[in-house]
Amino acid sequence: MSEIIVAGSINMDIVNHVDQFALPGQTIQGKLTEFFPGGKGANQAVAAAKSGASVRMIGAVGRDPFGEELISSLRQAGVSTDQVVKKEGASGMAFITVNAQGENEIILSQGANGKLTASDIPDLSAYSHVHAVLLQNEIPWPVTRHVILEARRHRIPVIFNPAPAMPVSDDDLALIDTLVLNETEAECIAGESAEPPEKAARFFIGRGVREVLLTLGERGCFYANRDGDEIAVSAYPVQAVDTTAAGDTFIGAFAAARAEGMPVREGLRFASAAAALSVIRRGAQASIPAKAEILRFMNEAGR
Fold it and tell me: Is residue 216 marked as binding?
């Protein structure tokens, strides 16, 4: 079985549920506070594993009460954690506020994620049958770039999700095989509107990216590649409760589908179904569905 290696963040999400977001200077009453293992890297690793892929996580947790819980959550999902290191101090944390419409606001505290270094990254040539390396923007950029260069050196495809959004140079974009991003992230990097998605995709392909996948929320997603193929897939209509891990679930599920050899259009539908199921549940990793659930949902939806 092909393996997906995920290098990225591992967080404890502290989630507060409110009716409406607070205005500056305003104090409001929270309805419920919950703790969920999260972090974009860990979420995507769990999503890929629960979608049927063999997954190895590279990252860091703190020597605090959250550290072991975060590692345990990854293991329970079937993710290999032998390359998760422990750093002095606190684990990464995300302070998330979710309103009655299921929308969220997030403040990140890097913790151990910010202490990850290039020396913590194993030799990727030690792992055979690697389908892809999956990366995000919640660990230091020099570490992410080191992993990208190592993957390129060993001819391992790179899937990059530039979230949270930050500028990425044309030289670095040219190192990416699959770029997966939402409209906000696309606009941040391109410096212009992401509408229409065809235009945004062509911008990134023009800078050397092999294939681009734009997630469009309720409008679904749009895929384009260097060969001129373009695919639009609509979202599954559901009533959102919490969108915290929707993007991560989509990315992990899509990576797993492609590692399995699923055609792109089918993989996009599979990932869209996984994301739809994730938003009708609370939490990050706790909301991510298993492969059997995703397939059953697709079958019931007739898609």
Answer: yes
**16 labeled binding residue:** no
Whether 227 sits among the annotated catalytic residues: the reply is: no
**For 245-262, b where at least 16 C-beta lie within 10 A, e where not — what string?**
bbbbbbbbbbbbbbbbeb
Give yes or no for a contact between 154 and 17, defined as CB atoms under 8 angstroms apart: no
**140: containing domain:** 3-21+32-301
- Going from the C-alpha of 269 to that of each of 28, 211, 266, the distances in angstroms are 39, 17, 5
Residue 219 in contact with residue 234, Cβ under 8 Å? yes
287 is in an annotated binding site: yes
pLDDT in tens, 70-104: 999 999 999 999 999 999 999 999 898 989 887 88
8 class by beta-carbon count within 10 Å (0-12 exposed, 13-18 middle, 19+ buried): buried
| Single-letter residue type at 253 | A
| pTM (predicted TM-score) | 0.92
Q: Residue 258: which CATH number?
A: 3.40.1190.20
